[in-house]
Prior knowledge:
The structure is a homodimer. In chain A, strand 6 (185-188), helix 10 (196-209) and strand 7 (220-222) form a beta-alpha-beta unit. Chain A is 55% helix and 12% strand. The radius of gyration of chain A is 22 Å and the shape is globular. The first copy, chain A, is α/β, with parallel strands linked by helices. In chain A, strands 3-2-4-1-5-6-7 form a 7-stranded parallel β-sheet, with helices on both faces. In chain A, helix 1 packs across helix 2 and helix 2 packs across helix 3. The longest helix of chain A is centred in the C-terminal third of the chain and has 32 residues, at 250-281. The first copy, chain A, has 14 helices and 7 strands. Chains A and B meet through helix 3, helix 8, helix 12, helix 13 and helix 14 of A and helix 3, helix 8, helix 12, helix 13 and helix 14 of B.
Amino acid sequence: MELVQRARQGDRRALARLITLVENEAPEAVEALQELYLFTGKAQVIGITGPPGSGKSTLTDKLVKELRKEKKKVAVIAVDPTSPFTGGAILGDRIRMSDLNLDEDVYIRSMGTRGSLGGLSAATSAATKVLDACDFDYVFIETVGVGQSEVDIVKAADTTIVVMVPGLGDDIQAIKAGILEIGDFFVVNKADRDGANRVALELRMMLDLNEQKLVWQPPVLMSVANQNQGIAEIVAGIKDHFTYLKESGELAIKRRERLEKELLEIVSKKIYRQIADKVQREGKLKQYLDSLMKKETDPYTLVKVILQDVIKT
Amino acid sequence: MELVQRARQGDRRALARLITLVENEAPEAVEALQELYLFTGKAQVIGITGPPGSGKSTLTDKLVKELRKEKKKVAVIAVDPTSPFTGGAILGDRIRMSDLNLDEDVYIRSMGTRGSLGGLSAATSAATKVLDACDFDYVFIETVGVGQSEVDIVKAADTTIVVMVPGLGDDIQAIKAGILEIGDFFVVNKADRDGANRVALELRMMLDLNEQKLVWQPPVLMSVANQNQGIAEIVAGIKDHFTYLKESGELAIKRRERLEKELLEIVSKKIYRQIADKVQREGKLKQYLDSLMKKETDPYTLVKVILQDVIKT
């Protein structure tokens, strides 16, 4: 596919179009992803999550710049499952990153809510694959919003950084156990503020209490991102974690699990469409819905009928 | 099924167990839902959504009490896709409603995040069906959090109320077009605050600008829920909307569309499970994943193979 070739040769417009293609699940997307798959697996995918106001964007910005000193190719996917009520914080955040946009070896992409959240997570995952296959060394997935959905999104990363900040009310107490479990390491950002040491200490204690005995002990690092403090240490931590993942065999396990989930998800999506088409095409759907509306049958009984019609035994 | 009978006879503990059953997609849930389906379709399902701090819980509380004056059976499903970072606002809200809990003809149920958001929306929908079949006249689905997911949840309602409030910063400007489209009516709550009239006026103007020409013109109402002001008018509006839906035929259309989506979702979920079991059982999954990890094939090519194996052509 010409678009794939051009994107892999560094054509940024082709890259952007390719990501749009896979995001929208265009018909050509399958062909593109088939071709790209062979080139995937080299990039380290890093998820960055944390409460609003913790400075995730600034931190990501600085991490990208630090990695650029080593001439690495870096991509950022900024995910914004924008609330329809509060909306639009992302734009301001991303504008701050605009100087990075001038760098040929940095690629920044925003992703907003489209339809379902399942869709957003799938779109992020597909874009990650495109970037990986186009030889980006690091792909950051940064979530701008806050919620379970973002946690699900960053779960797809090899390395997950949870960013905390002092002075957010209940601080650590407000954080649920789930967060501790997804973090491969923790960054207390805005560490020049009062209470930063306490946040780090409490995090450390909660991590120690965590019953899961892990081989990898998640470090707790401090940063003042807007003053570039602590950035080099975080980059070192990111690299350490990737080395650990590779040497321990955990990377292969994680990726295999992700492939399994992905494979079955593609299967189920395809099946849904095939069945929807089939019942529609054969005019059966109307008939089914008529009898449901008249309460002549119920959805569960009907499902059995449809399955017998569709599935090989 | 005995549990269904008891729940339909007004046994509250049976009702609670039944909802838990369908929420968790227990094996017996299908049998229960099959039986219940015939009794569904009478309740008016009302979604209540809006930004945090708009007083949705208090408003719902008062609406329930107003409907109780007419001896209606009323249920409230309080949905809280709790953020893992902020968590737990719902408890305080629900405690305020505790006097309603003493009323035999009021049923209140909280639903938290469980696994995926798709799961939460499915659980809400299933619980709504149980309550409808158990002769509740009104089922309120109130979302405590804020986000696209909640909007998706309330979309399953017959009537959607969007609650606004003066003094939330950018007010109306911050609200996206999507919200205007889902609201069957709008309530400006805390209308004793400065700026309430302006919020109502702006809403009205934005609704008029809305290009979709609707038969139903969404009213904008004012309330001070904690002083019981405007509640009777909202209840009247809820009833008007249901009458409109029935007389225009829109209710039947909406419900038919919902049934279609639901039917196909149940089918694809069932097939997904069958396929996952099948490939696992036959030891093919391991083989598939091995060849994926070795890049001998790609997920999309593999999906075709799996489908050919399972689906009738």
